């Protein structure tokens, strides 16, 4: 069997790496992370020109008609560069919901603009026991936590209880009765608490039942796993380079067996995480049931990639904690991605249920 990416996928990866190397250096990532807005509009438009935001969107709606595996390969490169922006919530999770929903009008209205980078759609889907409710008058009330990029999103996909079941809604952020406050977080993403105080919703806002929610969150979990793997790969590269060039006691620190073993552990963790990721992404792209595969990939990478970042700090020593060094940006991105779309404990529970454990 040939496990190599297709020629088109290899071109996508090569183009992405070259583009991000030129237009998304660590200095730019650091600057955007420190900015209150947290989004680089020029970079977002350039990404749209390459068709990245529309990778999952069908061609008739202005997209590239790619597969989820294509998206995973791209997001891995974005994670390696630490590229800022709400790509995963908007171009992966929200796009997956819209593609699976019953509302054809919303698809035609939003997906072409999202693919062109002109619209951003956020998501508030992570909480199974959602506190959001739609009353008999069609008013949405409740609060959603950890909503990424709510300050720049044109609309939010939310899961709310209505008539005894969970419904997916698309709510414009400029509607009356919606307020948002920034949350203190360690990562570069800008997360918000969003409050809905009687915001009006109509039949046009309904995307359908919550059946699409699970598939969208699985796609998001794979994308966050790819982000972790890409960031961990860059951490590995930086650590090995440092071990070769940092001289202590008259020879490079990589000449010491303890550092060699540490670098070997980094390779093991990155490669194992990538293998699980690709297997789960391929099965999902082929339409094969892959709930356990996605859960295994996300759970393993959440722990293994964090271990890579922590071990790299030991290799680097004090310089790895300086803001001028990119290691802290990669570490924070891995940590944040490990929690989004389900942490390791949640996905290990999915694996346990899949193999019949209670």
Quickly describe the structure.
The chain is an alpha+beta fold. It has helices at residues 7-23, 26-34, 41-49, 68-81, 87-100, 104-115, 211-245, 257-285, 291-316, 327-339, 344-354; strands at residues 121-124, 133-134, 139-148, 155-162, 165-172, 178-182, 191-200, 206-209, 247-248, 251-252.
Biggest sheet architecture? 4 strands, mixed
Calculate the mean pLDDT score and round it.
Answer: 94
Q: Which spans have pLDDT < 50 for at least 5 consecutive residues?
A: none
Please name the CATH topology of the largest domain. Butyryl-CoA Dehydrogenase, subunit A, domain 3
Q: What share of residues is helical? A: 40-55%
Care to describe what's here?
There is one protein chain. The chain is an alpha+beta fold. It folds into three domains: 7-115, Butyryl-Coa Dehydrogenase, subunit A, domain 1 (Orthogonal Bundle), CATH 1.10.540; 121-209, Beta Barrel (Butyryl-CoA Dehydrogenase, subunit A, domain 2); 212-354, Butyryl-CoA Dehydrogenase, subunit A, domain 3, CATH 1.20.140. 53% of the residues lie in helices and 15% in strands. The protein has eleven helices and ten strands. Helix 7 (211-245) runs antiparallel to helix 8 (257-285) and helix 9 (291-316) runs antiparallel to helix 10. The mean pLDDT is 94.
């Amino acid at each position: 069997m040939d496990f190599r990416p297709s020629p088109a996928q290899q071109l996508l990866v090569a183009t992405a790496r070259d583009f991000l190397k030129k237009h998304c250096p660590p200095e730019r990532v650091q600057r955007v992370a420190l900015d209150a807005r947290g989004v680089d509009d020029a970079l977002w438009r350039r990404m749209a020109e390459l068709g990245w935001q529309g990778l999952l969107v069908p061609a008739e709606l202005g997209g590239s008609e790619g597969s989820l595996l294509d998206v995973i390969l791209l997001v891995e490169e974005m994670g390696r560069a630490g590229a800022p922006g709400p790509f995963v919530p908007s171009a992966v999770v929200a796009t997956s919901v819209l593609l699976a929903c019953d509302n054809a009008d919303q698809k035609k209205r939003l997906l072409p603009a999202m693919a062109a980078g002109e619209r951003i759609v956020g998501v508030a889907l992570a909480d199974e026991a959602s506190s959001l409710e739609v009353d008999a008058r069609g008013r949405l009330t409740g609060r959603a936590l950890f909503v990424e990029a709510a300050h720049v999103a044109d609309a939010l996909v939310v899961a709310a209880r209505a008539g005894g079941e969970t419904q997916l809604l698309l709510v414009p952020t400029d509607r009356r009765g919606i307020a948002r406050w920034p949350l203190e977080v360690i990562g570069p993403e800008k997360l918000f608490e969003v409050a809905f105080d009687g915001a009006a919703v109509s039949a046009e806002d309904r995307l359908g039942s919550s059946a699409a929610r699970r598939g969208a969150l699985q796609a998001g979990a794979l994308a966050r796993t790819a982000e972790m793997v890409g960031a961990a790969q860059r951490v590995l590269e930086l650590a090995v380079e440092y071990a070769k060039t940092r001289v202590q006691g008259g020879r490079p620190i990589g000449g010491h067996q303890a550092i060699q073993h540490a670098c070997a552990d980094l390779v093991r963790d990155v490669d194992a995480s990538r293998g699980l990721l690709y297997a789960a992404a391929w099965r999902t792209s082929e339409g094969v049931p892959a709930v356990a595969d996605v859960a295994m990939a996300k759970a393993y990478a959440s722990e293994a990639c964090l271990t890579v970042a922590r071990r790299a700090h030991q290799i680097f020593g004090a310089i790895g904690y300086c803001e001028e060094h990119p290691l802290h940006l990669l570490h924070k991105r891995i940590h944040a991605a490990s929690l989004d779309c389900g942490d390791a404990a949640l996905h290990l529970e999915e694996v346990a249920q899949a193999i019949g454990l209670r």
